[in-house]
Amino acid sequence: MTTKNTESGAGAESGAEAASVTWAAANARRLARQGLTTPSGGGPAAVTRAMVGAHAQVLSAAELSVALRLDGGATRESVRTALWTDGSLVKTFGPRGTVHLLPSADLPLWTGALSALPAGRDAMPADVRMSAAETDQVVAAIADALADDDLTVDELTEAIVARTGPWAGDLVMDAFQTKWPRWRQMTHTAAHRGALCFGPNRGRKVTYTNPHRLLPGFTPLPGRAALAGLVERYLYAYGPASPQHFAKWLAMPVNWAKELFAALATEGRTERVRYEGGPAWVVAGDTDFPTERPAPGVRLLPYFDAFTIASQPRERLFPGAAYERALGGGQAGNFPVLLIDGVVAGVWHQRRSGKWLDMTVEPLGGTLTAARRAELEEQVERTAEILQGTPRLTVGAVSVGAHA
Questions:
Q1: DSSP string, 91-102
Q2: pLDDT at 377 > cutoff 70
Q3: Is 134:161 a contact under the CB 8 Å cutoff?
Q4: DSSP assigned state of 5
């Protein structure tokens, strides 16, 4: 069953009492829309759109995030095919400047929105920074160098230096006990402006390509329209949400997000509700929420799964011991998590040895009932199917740290 708030966005802003949405109802809707209640019949691109991007700093985690939301026995190969064969997914720098899988068809929206975000404080030392003019030169050089071929980092460095001068290749950036060339501080900027995305690996080497090669005629959307579209995508997936929640998701200033939300409310594109005791927003007219709890269920989510990163407030998704155990330093995503009935109730870890996939699951609420154990075993089997291994389950303490 669902309940509908028929109050208009304008009415809510003019002082009429806004509808109230409980966290349980919001969480149930998020789970359903993410394919975590019932797997989706869409393909990888549709699922990734519903997630508003899949974090792919660890690509195997992104493959699991997407495939576990698909029905029909999808595996990591289903995601790889979408990424490297049919091109319906693209690997690029997304929100927070981190690597994400995004639907290729949505790249005009994403690049338009991300390139319109306010610039933050430059954390680079003064002798490493690049001026606005130098940044423009580097982005143009990247776009030109990648127009006809995929290039490794070293090849791209040579191409950029040839187009800009040796300053762009100066080894001045501290990185992993070595030095990177100056231009690399603008890799995510080039991606956000639509000049760069990832190409297929060449052996163990990463390559970059120009997204125009994947999407002929590709052009980033105008910034204001793209930002409005991104807010609507975010609210549809994770609403109700406040400007503070949106700002945290994008790692942007709260005051900027407040101004953006206020403008969209004035335009009638969003609607205010009461959520967790305060004001929050949904897409205008998108006010149907479940009135019943979701069907009980066990799910295993990998590192940096979009659901755990974007769902707010975190203290409700990570209740009790989960807040300390599964939020590494307050950062969601550092641990793969066990969901029981839609909340974090444990952590888990997997290690591959040949065909074997050894999975250790640590419930945080004591021992599992027989029914829960059976559901967990099903999830372990499904995870192993996605990762194409043979599972061995241990229920006990997870002794490794984040990202181990």
A1: EEE-GGG-EEEE
A2: yes
A3: no
A4: -
Tell me if 269 sits within 8 A of 228, measured CB to CB: yes
Percent of residues, the chain, with pLDDT higher than 90: 83
Kindly report the number of other CB atoms within 10 A of residue 55's CB atom. Answer: 25
**Which residues lie across from 147 on neighbouring strands?**
none
Classify 151 as helix, strand or coil: strand
Q: What is d(CA 304, CA 337) in angstroms, rounded to the nearest whole number?
A: 10
- C-alpha span between 230 and 87 (Å, rounded): 22
pLDDT score of 7 more than 80: no
Q: Any idea how long the chain is?
A: 404
Q: Which two tokens stand for residue 120?
A: 């933050």
Mean pLDDT of 1-10: 42
Residue 301 has pLDDT above 80, yes or no: yes
pTM, full prediction: 0.92
How does pLDDT run across 223-247, given as a tens digit for each residue?
999 999 999 999 999 999 999 999 9
Q: Residue 242's closest CA among 289, 282, 285, 286?
A: 282
Listed in sequence order, the DSSP H helices in 76-222 are 76-80, 107-114, 132-145, 153-164, 187-192, 211-214
- In the chain, how long is the greatest CA-to-CA distance? 66
Instruction: Report the 10 Å Cβ neighbour count for 205.
Output: 11
Return the amino acid letter for 394.
Answer: T
Bridge-based pairing state of the strands 343-353 and 356-363: antiparallel
Residue 369 confidence class, pLDDT cut points 50, 70, 90:
very high
Enumerate residues 6+ apart whose C-beta is below 8 A from 131: none
C-alpha to C-alpha distance for 197 and 240, rounded to whole angstroms: 32
* Rounded-to-integer distance, Cα 173 and Cα 180, Å: 5
What is the pLDDT of the chain when averaged over all its residues?
92
Q: How far, in Å, CA of 326 to CA of 317, rounded?
A: 11
The model's confidence at residue 359, banded by pLDDT at 50, 70 and 90, is very high
Residue 314, both tokens: 């975190």
> At which residue do the structure tokens 């030095």 appear?
179
